[in-house]
Amino acid sequence: MKKWLKQSLTSVALLAFFSGCMTNQDVREPGQPPGMPPAPEMLEPPQQINIRKTVDEQLAELDELVKDAETVPKLGKGDLLSISVYDEPDLSLKAVPIRPDGKISFPLAGDLVAADKSVQELTDDITERLKRYLLSPRVSVVVNQFNSLKYTLYGEVVNPGVYPLVTDMTITEALAKAGGLRKGQFRASHVELADLTHAFISRDGNVLPVDFVKLLREGDLRFDIPLQTGDYIYIPSGLSKEVYIIGEVNKASIFAFREEMPMSRTVSLAEGFTPDADLSRIHVIRGALQNPTLIVADFTKVIAGEAQDVQLEPGDIVYVPPTGLIKWARIINSIMPTIQALQLGIILSDR
Questions:
Q1: Which regions of the chain does DSSP assign to beta strands (E)?
Q2: pTM of the shown model
Q3: What sign results for the dihedral spanned by CA atoms 32, 34, 37, 43?
Q4: CB burial string 241-253: b at 16+ within 10 A, e below
């Protein structure tokens, strides 16, 4: 009995020993040397979220945005007006400027606030003032120049800058006014320097679904929308290769692209994260901003060797979101002001 018990205990001990050895072995591919980390294909892949739209979906969204933007323009500082009163030649002025204080001066009416009013609202104000002196004044206000309405066109155009929106103007007309896309010399021939894939137009901080490749390369004029005051058009260079690191980082910036540029190492260039950073959902925005590919990676799992890293490509935007930000519309609205500020900073430093 004792001999049987001793043999049983020995068997149990040996079984436990070998079971422990098997449990502590590395998980690896057949033929992979011991002690090596798991093969990349065995790691958790980054999540790719499908937010891309078809051309028809982009155009439908663009139509709605253009309709919403069809509002009566407001007057602003620097605008020039012509004001006349029917059958009162002494009350007709051809070049009435809206002063820096936002006011104009008109005979009998005195000083009136004109900035941030529509033409009709200003007409009504002048009419009401003149009723003190005239029986039925008929006032006409015409805008000679809308100097307060402006749009911005930066990047690979011949004459980038801020332009007055004095007349109705579309994207292609704005590009033509700026001298067209800039060209450079390559192998004894002239080539365009613009990267139309990453070009975009933003309005009130929101990227509009305008496909610049289809508009300028394929001549699809359905994307040639009229501009509104404050619009920002950016045509990046096809020669410069850059990546953006923005969001909940200590130093958002643009960095030169290098071969073998993994996301996990690249974010360290931004000098660390803020306390609000959500490292489990770092977003890599790839391709056209108005219709991008979105890749979401868990930074904590990547550095722990549990998930695949994301190899960055030229033009990628690495966005570290704050905790709780999950909707794409809110994400794109958050990144646009930073991107525009970084681009403007580079443009000014180049000048």
A1: 47-49, 80-85, 93-97, 103-106, 110-113, 139-145, 150-155, 161-164, 183-186, 189-192, 200-203, 206-207, 232-235, 242-247, 253-256, 282-286, 293-297, 317-320
A2: 0.69
A3: positive
A4: ebbbbbbbbeebb
Domains of the chain: 40-52+241-350 (3.10.560.10), 80-145 (3.30.1950.10), 149-235 (3.10.560.10)
Please report the sign of the dihedral spanned by the C-alpha atoms of residue 179, residue 185, residue 187, residue 192: negative
Q: Coil, strand or helix: which one is 12?
A: helix
CA-to-CA dists, residue 66 to 148, 168, 222, angstroms: 21, 13, 12
Cβ-contact 296, 46 below 8 angstroms: yes
Closest of 206, 244, 212, 243 to residue 225, by C-alpha? 212
DSSP assignment of 29-76: -TTPPTTPPPPGGGSBPPEEE-----HHHHHHHHHHHHHHT--PPPP-
Query: CB-hemisphere CA count at 13 Å for 50?
Result: 2
Please report how many Cα atoms fall inside a 13 Å half-sphere around the Cα of residue 196, on the Cβ side: 14
Cα distances (Å, whole numbers) of residue 150 to 92, 103, 218, 242: 28, 20, 28, 28
pLDDT in tens, 110-149: 999 999 899 999 999 999 999 999 989 999 999 888 888 8
Cross-strand bridge partners of residue 85 = 139
Report the DSSP beta bridge partners of residue 245.
Answer: 253, 318
Secondary structure class of 279 (helix, strand, coil): helix
Q: What is the pLDDT of residues 235-256, one digit of tens each?
A: 988 877 889 999 999 999 888 8
Provide the strand spans (E) within 156-203: 161-164, 183-186, 189-192, 200-203
Rounded Cα gap, residues 76 and 100, in angstroms = 9
